[in-house]
Design goal:
The strands form two sheets. A three-stranded antiparallel beta sheet has the order 1-2-3, with no helix packed on it. A two-stranded antiparallel sheet has the order 4-5. 0% of the residues are buried. By secondary structure, the chain is mainly β. A hairpin with a 7-residue loop joins strand 2 and strand 3. It is 0% helix and 37% strand.
Amino acid sequence: QWEIDFDLNKVYSWYIKYDTLEVQHKEGDDWVAYSAIAEGECDYKRPDKVYQADLDDDDVGDYLEVV
């Protein structure tokens, strides 16, 4: 789980490796690393699916969307 304030569908490129989300927001920008907010038991190097949840005011996701 990562706490981010942007839509992964709207960034230039991204990948997950060793519980770290790496994002290149625009072509030519530097890569930005986002650490996971929860400790996982899996290796997220090559996930089969990635889910994105929009959080409401009390930081609870109403639904998960596959991105």
